[in-house]
Amino acid sequence: MAVSSIRTLLIEDNPVDAELIQAVLSQAPEAAFELEWVDGLAKGLKELKAGVVDLVLLDLHLPESRGVDTFNTTRACAPAVPIVVLTGLDDHELALKVVRNGAQDYLVKGQIDRHTLLRSMQYALVRHRLQIEEESPAWRDSLTNVYNRQGFFVLGEQLLRLADKYQYQVTLFYADLVELETINEIYGKEPGDAALQTVADALCETVRESEFGARVGGHQFAFMCYSLFAPPERDVLARFVEALRANSRRGQCPYLLNVNWGVSVYDPARPVALSSLMLHAEAQACPVSRTGGNVGGGG
Fold it and tell me: 31 lies in which domain range?
């Protein structure tokens, strides 16, 4: 399958830094980057207005503009294009400002390596694509405020299309609160809802910015992420279990939360429907107790 190039615009006035970025991207095996370098903001805005850019790497300090103004001007020109800031200033306040204003990441020159840059660029693309779809209220679960099944499938299909385009694997993680009905029967619906919220909160603490979690059934949850930059499955599970335990203790749950956990991997070389990926994860699900012990609440 032919892989479409990621059309990347580097706006950087330092030729040495530009050459370093060009060298990094030319050696990237994960995706084809088509890099264009311009040495000034005016030239960069001209390219953005032509509408042929997928991603911007932006130096904040240019001859015509400096600091946050550089970012704001660039974003105003092309709000639909994700921007990763590359700067020589290790300035926490400046980083917060540009991220609040919409930057996908803030990287300090001299502190980034090939892996960090490529990961940041890929995350920026995914996050921005999902943001463009916008978080419609119709896609949110009214109880837990994570995505609902509809939102999961809309965003999940988008993620699989990106995986096909850039030839990445995607991992689907699945969690099933198997004893919800028992909790409802013994303790009542309100504690049952609290148990669902506890799982949802743990899910949100487990997923990273480029991932998204959802309640895909009455007591089933799932999230997806690019496999290339995802930690090993055991680390994701450990992170989820720890978050679940911590949230259970804070909520002083009078019951144990028993969760089944399953994983399914999407390979663009052998594409399948998202529904099939979900069914496979459900079929593979087994109790967390087999891999790390029951998740106990307080009491």
Answer: 6-133
Show the tokens assigned to 58.
């932006």
Whole-angstrom CA distances from 189 to 183, 185, 194, 297 are 8, 8, 9, 17
Q: Is the domain of 110 the same as that of 164?
A: no
Residue 296 lies in a domain: no
Total-model pTM: 0.57
pLDDT in tens, the chain (299 residues): 334 578 899 999 999 999 988 888 877 655 567 889 999 999 999 998 887 788 999 999 998 888 899 999 998 888 778 999 988 888 888 888 888 888 888 998 888 888 888 888 888 887 776 666 555 567 889 899 888 998 898 888 877 877 786 677 889 999 999 888 888 888 888 888 988 999 999 888 888 655 678 999 999 999 988 765 556 788 888 888 888 888 777 656 667 788 999 999 999 899 999 999 999 999 999 987 433 333 333 33
Distance CA 176, CA 195 (A): 12
- Domain total in the chain: 2
Strands (E), the chain: 6-11, 33-38, 55-59, 83-87, 105-108, 170-177, 212-215, 220-226, 259-266, 286-287
Are both 128 and 159 inside the same structural domain? Answer: no
145 and 213 assigned to the same domain? yes
Is residue 144, in this structure, part of any structural domain at all?
yes
Helix (H, G, I), strand (E, B) or coil at 55: strand
